[in-house]
Write a structure and sequence with these properties.
By secondary structure, this protein is α+β, with helices and mostly antiparallel strands. 40% of the residues lie in helices and 24% in strands.
């Protein structure tokens, strides 16, 4: 399946539905607005990929999910939202889609990476380690920021 086809499926079905539906090869996990949600998201990502026999993606996917959840916690918390964050992993062979939904409507905007400062590199890392990334608005408000990984043949 081509990358564009995988992304089209998520848009046709809708991230809102994927976040609440119990689908095969799909893991959805709620996360609170807490710093330790980043570690939880990495652990869920690694265990899900191991269950799918895709441990070779674990390091890159864990790094990317760390950045996405960090951004979700940081920006949604400042926006004063009460709804939590949702982690979604979906296997659509030969791809794995990793998405983090948060209640903030603020569009993710990549910054020029500054390798001296402690922040501002998150989306650069996401872009570097994933095949493609983007975001989609949710019907229920907020957005899902996603990254796509190629998982073999």
């Amino acid at each position: 399946m081509a990358t564009a086809d995988c992304l089209q499926i998520t848009r046709e079905v809708g991230f809102d539905h994927l976040l609440t539906a119990d689908q095969p090869y799909t893991t959805s996990y709620p996360l609170p607005f807490q710093a330790d949600s980043v570690k939880t998201a990495r652990d869920v990502t690694r265990s899900t990929l191991a269950g799918w026999g895709l441990t070779e993606l674990s390091d890159d996917a864990a790094l990317v999910v760390s950045e996405l959840v960090t951004n979700a916690v940081r920006y949604a918390m400042y926006a004063g939202h009460r709804r939590g964050i949702e982690l979604l992993l979906m296997r659509v062979s030969p791809h794995v889609l990793l998405a983090v939904a948060d209640p903030s409507d603020e569009m993710p905007t990549p910054k020029e990476p500054d390798f001296v400062s402690e922040n501002g590199r998150g989306l650069y890392i996401v872009e570097t380690y994933s095949q493609r990334w983007g975001w989609d608005p949710l019907d229920s408000g907020g957005k899902a920021v996603w990254a796509l990984f190629h998982a073999g043949p």
